[in-house]
C-alpha cells in the first residue's frame, strides 16, 4: 500500500491524539456506560483521534478480554467521527492478534507499545515492530518510543521494510535528542507525535512534531485544542500560556516517576462526576488530602 493511501491516518496523527481512560465499575470491571459517555464527551469536544488501550487507559492492567472490549467500545461509539489508533503490545503473537482484531473492527492504525522486555537490542526492536507491521499491511503503524538507546536510523530501516510505519509517538524526555532522532530517521518521512503530552509539546513542535498525545484531554478537551491551535499557527507565547495553565496538573501526574499519571486524570474526572476514581495496581487512588487540589484545577478550567 502506498504512502498516499495513509494520508488520512497521517493527518489524524498531526493533531491532539487522545488517550482515553478506562473507567471501572464498583465491582472492578470495565464500566461500559461510563466509558461510552467519556468517549462521547471527547468527540463532542472536538477530538478526532482516539487511542484505546494507551497507557492512560491502563493498558498493562487490563486482561486480554478487556483490551478487546475497550477496542470494540471505542470503535462502536466513535463510528466515523474519529480515527482510531489501537494500542497493541506484549509478546509478538499477542500484539499481532490485537492488531488483526483492530483491523477486523475497522480501526485505521495501531500504536505499538514500547517493548517492556528487560533486554531490547536495536535490531531486535526492528524485528519486533516488523513482525507486527507486516501482519497488518492495511493499517498505519506507530511505534511508541521511550528507548533512549534507539537510533533514528533503526526507524528508517523499519520503514524501508514496512511502508505502513507512518508515524512515531516519541516519548524520550529530551527535546534535543528528539530533534536529532527525527532528522536521522527522516523528518518528513514520518508524522512526529510528541508522546509526553502538553508539557513537552511546545519544545517538540519547535523541533518538528506536528501532533501530541494527551491524557489531560479526558478532563478538558478545549484546553488541549487551544494548545494545538497555538502551535499550528506558530504562536509559541500563546502555547506557553496554555502550558502555564496545565503545568501544575501535569506536575502532579509526573511526580515520583509518573506514579499518579492516570490517578490524577481519573481524580479530576471523579471530581466532575464523570467516572469513579479507582485505578488498578500498581497505580493507586490519590490520598484524600491531595484530592482537593486536583478538583480545584479541573473546576478552574471551566469545563
TrEMBL record:
<feature type="active site" description="Schiff-base intermediate with substrate">
    <location>
        <position position="169"/>
    </location>
</feature>
<keyword id="KW-0456">Lyase</keyword>
<feature type="binding site">
    <location>
        <position position="56"/>
    </location>
    <ligand>
        <name>pyruvate</name>
    </ligand>
</feature>
<comment type="similarity">
    <text>Belongs to the DapA family.</text>
</comment>
<protein>
    <submittedName>
        <fullName>Dihydrodipicolinate synthase family protein</fullName>
    </submittedName>
</protein>
<dbReference type="Pfam" id="PF00701">
    <property type="entry name" value="DHDPS"/>
</dbReference>
<dbReference type="GO" id="GO:0008840">
    <property type="term" value="F:4-hydroxy-tetrahydrodipicolinate synthase activity"/>
</dbReference>
<feature type="active site" description="Proton donor/acceptor">
    <location>
        <position position="144"/>
    </location>
</feature>
<dbReference type="InterPro" id="IPR013785">
    <property type="entry name" value="Aldolase_TIM"/>
</dbReference>
<dbReference type="InterPro" id="IPR002220">
    <property type="entry name" value="DapA-like"/>
</dbReference>
Amino acid at each position: 500500500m502506498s504512502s498516499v493511501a495513509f494520508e488520512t491516518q497521517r493527518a489524524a496523527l498531526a493533531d491532539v491524539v487522545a488517550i482515553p481512560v478506562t473507567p471501572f465499575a464498583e465491582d472492578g470491571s470495565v464500566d461500559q456506560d461510563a466509558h461510552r459517555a467519556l468517549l462521547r464527551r471527547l468527540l463532542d469536544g472536538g477530538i478526532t483521534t482516539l487511542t484505546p488501550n494507551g497507557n492512560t487507559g491502563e493498558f498493562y492492567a487490563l486482561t486480554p478480554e478487556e483490551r478487546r472490549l475497550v477496542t470494540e467500545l471505542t470503535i462502536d461509539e466513535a463510528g466515523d467521527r474519529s480515527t482510531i489508533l489501537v494500542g497493541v503490545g506484549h509478546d509478538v503473537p499477542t500484539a499481532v492478534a490485537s492488531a488483526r482484531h483492530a483491523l477486523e473492527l475497522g480501526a485505521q492504525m495501531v500504536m505499538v507499545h514500547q517493548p517492556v522486555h528487560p533486554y531490547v537490542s536495536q535490531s531486535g526492536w526492528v524485528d519486533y515492530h516488523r513482525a507486527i507491521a507486516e501482519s497488518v499491511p492495511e493499517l498505519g503503524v506507530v511505534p511508541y518510543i521511550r528507548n533512549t538507546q534507539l537510533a533514528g536510523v533503526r526507524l528508517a530501516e523499519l520503514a524501508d521494510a514496512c511502508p505502513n510505519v507512518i508515524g512515531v509517538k516519541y516519548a524520550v524526555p529530551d527535546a534535543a535528542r528528539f530533534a536529532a532522532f527525527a532528522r536521522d530517521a527522516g523528518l518528513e518521512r514520518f508524522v512526529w507525535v510528541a508522546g509526553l503530552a502538553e508539557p513537552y509539546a511546545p519544545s517538540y513542535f519547535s523541533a518538528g512534531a506536528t501532533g501530541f498525545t494527551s491524557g489531560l484531554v479526558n478532563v478538558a478537551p478545549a484546553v488541549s485544542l487551544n494548545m494545538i491551535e497555538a502551535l499550528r499557527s506558530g504562536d509559541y507565547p500563546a502555547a506557553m500560556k496554555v502550558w502555564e495553565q496545565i503545568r501544575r496538573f501535569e506536575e502532579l501526574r509526573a511526580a515520583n516517576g509518573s506514579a499518579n499519571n492516570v490517578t490524577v486524570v481519573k481524580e479530576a474526572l471523579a471530581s466532575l462526576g464523570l467516572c469513579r476514581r479507582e485505578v488498578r495496581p500498581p497505580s493507586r487512588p490519590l490520598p484524600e488530602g491531595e484530592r482537593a487540589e486536583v478538583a480545584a484545577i479541573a473546576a478552574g478550567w471551566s469545563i
